[in-house]
Specification:
Elements (H helix, E strand, L loop, with lengths): L2 E4 L6 E4 L37 E4 L10 E7 L13 E4 L2 E4 L4 E6 L13 H18 L7 E8 L11 E7 L4 H17 L3 H12 L3 E4 L3 E4 L10 E5 L11 H21 L5 E6 L14 E6 L6 H6 L2 E3 L3 H9 L6
Parallel strand pairs: 2-15
Antiparallel strand pairs: 1-2, 3-4, 4-7, 5-6, 7-9, 8-9, 8-13, 10-11, 11-12, 12-14, 13-14
Helix pairs in contact: 1-4
Length: 334
């Protein structure tokens, strides 16, 4: 039976409709992308990208040459630019802000076929460390207010280059969804003096039906009001507001859990395309008792249609309890 569910973290409503999974082509599949060895991110092709702004390298290797483990370069076709002067204006009811910001590409590995679900744990930790370092660096620009880290893995998820990479867009404003979610969390804390996310995690750990995996430091869930099939969210079990202020030990635990979750999705869904994204605090804000960062993973299995765009509601044909049960039982090859 279908039902509507409300996400307690942000107030969004979702329709869970398992019977719709019986439709032909209920889950999106697309053909493979370009040949990985044609990637412009391969070692030895560094001249094909803008000069790097950050890299984790082997000792003795040269800047903008081979020998890197993780490499960060400006996007060749940036959505926003740091050199643009920040300006705001209004024309009647229309508000406008100049395209000030930053848009970077974080290449996860010299291996064009490896991704965060297949790379060694220590390499995944290097990637997360690079994410945190770039957010810390961009936060020094006081024009920028929020850093959105995301990855489109696979053509169906919006990737245009098969070599796995993440992107980081720093914005001169805080996105409305983040503002709304923080307001919900703040209201909960003001009423109950408890973090809303911590309350959700405590309830989910007791219930267990939506737990995908639990490690010493991370809880991975199929959210109660999942907006798409097999969506998974990863939370630090200890209260943590800002991703960029995680310790090396915390990054190691998060890297291990993320690798396991992506590995399970690879096996269970036959290597799906997916979108990975970070939800964290706005830049430069002090640690807050109501804010709790997380990573989200959404396999690209379904498209939005007219109902979703018109109503602002999504229809998910896979109940999160069923998705979590299936993923819990999925073994990842060692």
């Amino acid at each position: 039976m279908s039902e509507l569910r409300r996400d307690p973290l942000n107030g969004r409503w979702v329709i869970i409709a398992p019977e719709r999974a019986d439709r032909p082509n209920a889950f999106l599949r697309r053909a493979p992308m370009d040949e990985p060895m044609s990637s412009p991110f391969l070692p030895g092709k560094e001249q094909l990208t803008p000069p790097e702004v950050f890299a984790l390298r082997e000792p003795g290797s040269s800047w903008n040459g081979p020998g890197w483990n993780v490499r960060v370069v400006p996007n060749r076709f940036p959505a926003l630019r740091t050199e643009t002067v920040l300006a705001r204006k209004g024309t009647g009811l229309f508000d406008q802000v100049s395209g000030t910001g930053a848009h970077e590409v974080i290449v996860e590995s010299p291996d064009p076929r490896g991704h965060l679900g297949t790379l060694p744990q220590e390499q995944v930790q290097r990637v997360l460390s690079a994410w945190a370092e770039r957010i810390r660096d961009l936060s020094r620009d006081t024009r920028l207010r929020y850093a959105q880290l995301f990855q489109n893995h696979g053509q169906a998820a919006g990737a245009t280059v098969s070599h796995p990479h993440a992107q980081l867009i720093a914005l001169p404003l805080v996105p409305p969804d983040i503002v709304e979610e923080l307001a919900v969390a703040r209201a909960h804390f003001e009423e109950k003096e408890r973090c809303l996310t911590c309350d959700v995690l405590a309830q989910e750990r007791e219930d267990r039906s939506r737990v995908v995996l639990e490690t010493a430091t991370v809880l991975a869930l199929a959210p109660y009001a999942s907006r798409s099939p097999f969506e998974v969210q990863l939370f630090p079990k200890a209260h943590k507001s800002a991703f960029e202020r995680t310790s090396d030990a915390e990054l190691a635990g998060l890297a291990d859990a993320l690798r396991l979750v992506l590995g399970k999705l690879d096996v269970a869904l036959e290597k799906p395309a997916y979108n990975l994204f970070l939800v964290t605090q706005p830049l430069r804000e002090p640690d807050a008792p109501h804010a709790h960062f997380r990573l989200g993973v959404r396999p690209a299995l379904a498209l939005w249609g007219g109902f979703e765009w018109g109503a602002g509601l999504t229809i998910n044909p896979t109940a999160p309890e069923e998705a979590a049960r299936f993923l819990r039982q999925t073994e990842v090859p060692s």
